[in-house]
Structure formats: structure tokens, C-alpha cells
């Protein structure tokens, strides 16, 4: 028998979530049944999209159930196996985050080839966030020669990869981030051409106009709200917007008003496309090929914010909405 702690959704939040919406519980796991594996998680991720799953609302992902352990990406080690395809010590990836250990059918976990990268990178730069950046920029926004690229939440797990891929392909990149440390990281370490500190800028629209006087061709949206309005204002004709996320709106208790200048999308003939990374996994092999090549050449960097202990997973999640994470927010479990 193995004891495991897990984080459950205790109540559905109204507005910004709080620690009271979560509860920590202990369970006992039996030995894995035939065809199952038992995994001890080493790392788990918290991501903004999980906020939507806390609501009892129809969406592209089913809502979390009250009183049950939440789900999310995790990297772990097989500790017991009743399936011939796995043995103790195998490193695996799963969607059984928010818990220290679990039993699952072997089909629900995937062996992880780290390609020389730290395992937790597959919850960030080499995982879903990196793949989101790759698909959103290259396919959805259809990046082409000469494009000027604007990225919101540019120091985050997705945004920082968008900035780097665009720079690797020779583009001018403008990023928006909050705080001097994040601005320095983007300019000095990632080589972003212009960085707007949205927390310090009195007028974001004017700040973007100054950073990109020639206008922008691509906007990678992680924030929505005033960032989307500023992008519409600075967009050149036939600009393409990849709508990845709108974290500024996730905790709204009433639907926020749409961009006040949305009419510009007509006159400028802007194409705006929302996307979900799971619809683009046919690009995974190409992403991993390019990622390995860029990493081997020392051309990629990423930041992680690490919180230790399953009991602090809700804290890590809540920090996403106050901008306290720098790069990928992770919880270390072992």
C-alpha cells in the first residue's frame, strides 16, 4: 500500500480563486492491477487554462468535479508495474497532476525521452507551452518574412518561446511584461527588440505605437483586454492575430466588454483566430526536431518558478493571476 496526498476542488470560485476553493486529502493506493502502473510524481504544472475548468461550464475541456482530485500535466517515475511495457524506474508523462502518486492503466501514461533536457522542461518549453508557441506563431499566425511581432505576457512560459522562435527566424519582436526584472530578461537574455513594462506604462496603446512605429503584422495574444485593443490600434493591413489566451478576463464575474476599437479589424482586414494546442499535435514531431536543434546550438532559454510540495500547489496556481511567476510555474513533488 502506498499513501498519496492529492489536491481536490472543494468549491467553485466566483471571480478570483482563493485557497478556500481547494482541499488537501490523503488516499491509500493498492498495488497496481493487471495492465496498470503506479507512478510517483516528480513534477506537476499549473496553467492558466485550469481556471476555466474550475467553472461548471461547457468548454473544450470538461470541468473539474467537486470533491475529486484535479488534473494536469505531470512527470513521474514508475514505482510498480503490472504491464509488460513498463518497469520500475521508467520516466513517464501523464495528465495525473495535482497528486503525489497514482495508479492508472498503462495506456494513460507515456514514456518520456528527455532528449538531454531536464524532465520538467516537458511541462514547459519542450511541452505543451512550447508546442503552443510553435503552432500558434508558425501555423495560426502564419509567420512570414518581414513580419513585426507583438507578444503579450512575453516572459511567460508560452510568450517567451514565441519571442525566441520569432527572433530565431529573423523578426523584429515587441514584448509586453510586468516589472523591471522581466523586462531585463526579455531584452538582455532573449534579445527582444522592444519591451513594454505594462505595469509602468501610463498608456499601453501609446507605448506600443512608440515601440512599433511601423505597426505590427502578428499579435500573439495571451492577455486580451487592453493589450488586444493596443494591438488592433497598431496592426497593419492584413495583420494576423493568434488568440491563445486572455488571462486578464479569466476571473471576471460578468463578461467584460469587447475591444472598443474592434471595428479596426474590418478596415485593416485583420484575421483573428483562436486556437487550442491539441488541434495542432500533427506538428509535434517538427516541433521536437526544431527544439532539439535550437537547444543543441544554445539558442533557447527558459525560466522556471518552482514551488515545492503538493500542499503548495494551490498557492502556485493562484500566483499565476497576480503575475508572480517568472516563466513556467512548476510544483516539485519529490
Looking at the structure, what is the overall shape? globular
Radius of gyration of CA atoms, rounded to a whole number: 21 Å
Major β-sheet, in short?
Answer: 7 strands, mixed
> What is the element string, with H for helices and E for strands?
EEEHEEEEHEHEHEHEHEHEHEHE
Summed over residues and divided by their number, the pLDDT gives a mean of 96
N- to C-terminal separation? 18 Å
Helical content stands at 10-25%
Number of strands: 15
- With helices defined by DSSP (H or I, 4 residues minimum), what is the helix count? 9
Which class best fits the helix and strand makeup? alpha/beta
> Any low-confidence stretches, pLDDT <50, length ≥5?
none
β content, as a range? 25-35%
Describe it for me?
This protein is an alpha/beta fold. Helices cover 24% and strands 26% of the residues. The strands form three sheets. Strands 3, 4, 5, 6, 7, 14 and 15 form a seven-stranded mixed sheet that branches. A six-stranded parallel sheet has the order 10-9-8-11-12-13, with helices on both faces. Strands 1-2 form a two-stranded antiparallel sheet. It is globular and about 65 Å long. The mean pLDDT is 96.
Task: Present the secondary structure layout.
Layout: E1 2-9, E2 22-29, E3 36-45, H1 50-53, E4 74-81, E5 91-94, E6 101-105, E7 110-111, H2 128-140, E8 148-151, H3 157-168, E9 172-177, H4 180-189, E10 194-197, H5 204-211, E11 216-221, H6 225-234, E12 235-243, H7 264-267, E13 271-274, H8 284-296, E14 304-308, H9 313-319, E15 328-332
Parallel strand pairs: 8-9, 8-11, 9-10, 11-12, 12-13, 14-15
Antiparallel strand pairs: 1-2, 3-4, 3-6, 3-15, 4-5, 5-7
Helix pairs in contact: 2-3, 5-6
Amino acid at each position: 500500500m502506498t499513501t498519496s496526498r492529492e489536491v481536490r476542488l472543494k468549491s467553485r470560485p466566483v471571480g478570483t480563486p482563493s485557497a478556500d476553493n481547494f482541499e488537501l486529502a490523503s488516499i491509500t493506493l493498492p498495488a497496481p492491477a493487471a495492465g496498470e502502473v503506479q507512478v510517483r510524481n516528480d513534477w506537476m504544472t499549473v496553467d492558466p487554462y485550469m481556471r476555466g475548468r474550475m467553472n461548471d461550464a461547457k468548454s473544450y475541456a470538461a470541468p473539474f468535479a467537486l470533491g475529486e482530485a484535479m488534473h494536469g500535466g505531470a512527470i513521474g517515475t514508475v514505482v510498480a508495474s503490472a504491464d509488460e511495457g513498463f518497469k520500475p524506474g521508467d520516466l513517464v508523462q501523464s495528465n495525473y497532476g495535482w497528486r503525489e502518486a497514482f495508479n492508472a492503466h498503462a495506456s494513460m501514461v507515456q514514456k518520456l525521452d528527455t532528449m538531454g533536457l531536464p524532465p520538467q522542461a516537458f511541462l514547459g518549453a519542450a511541452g505543451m507551452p512550447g508546442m503552443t508557441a510553435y503552432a500558434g506563431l508558425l501555423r495560426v499566425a502564419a509567420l512570414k518574412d518581414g513580419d513585426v511581432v507583438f507578444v503579450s505576457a512575453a516572459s511567460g512560459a508560452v510568450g517567451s518561446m514565441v519571442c525566441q522562435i520569432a527572433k530565431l527566424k529573423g523578426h523584429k519582436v515587441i514584448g509586453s511584461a510586468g516589472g523591471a526584472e522581466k523586462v531585463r530578461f526579455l531584452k538582455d537574455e532573449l534579445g527582444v527588440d522592444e519591451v513594454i513594462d505594462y505595469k509602468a506604462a501610463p498608456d499601453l496603446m501609446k507605448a506600443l505605437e512608440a515601440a512599433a512605429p511601423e505597426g505590427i503584422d502578428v499579435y500573439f495574444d495571451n492577455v486580451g483586454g487592453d493589450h488586444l485593443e493596443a494591438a488592433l490600434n497598431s496592426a497593419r493591413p492584413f495583420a494576423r492575430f493568434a488568440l491563445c489566451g486572455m488571462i486578464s478576463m479569466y476571473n471576471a464575474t460578468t463578461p467584460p466588454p469587447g475591444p472598443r476599437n474592434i471595428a479596426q479589424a474590418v478596415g485593416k482586414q485583420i484575421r483573428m483566430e483562436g486556437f487550442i494546442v491539441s488541434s495542432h499535435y500533427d506538428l509535434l514531431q517538427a516541433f521536437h526536431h526544431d527544439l532539439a536543434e535550437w537547444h543543441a546550438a544554445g539558442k533557447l532559454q527558459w525560466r522556471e518558478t518552482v514551488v515545492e510540495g503538493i500542499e503548495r500547489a494551490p498557492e502556485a496556481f493562484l500566483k499565476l493571476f497576480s503575475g508572480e511567476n517568472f516563466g513556467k510555474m512548476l510544483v516539485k513533488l519529490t
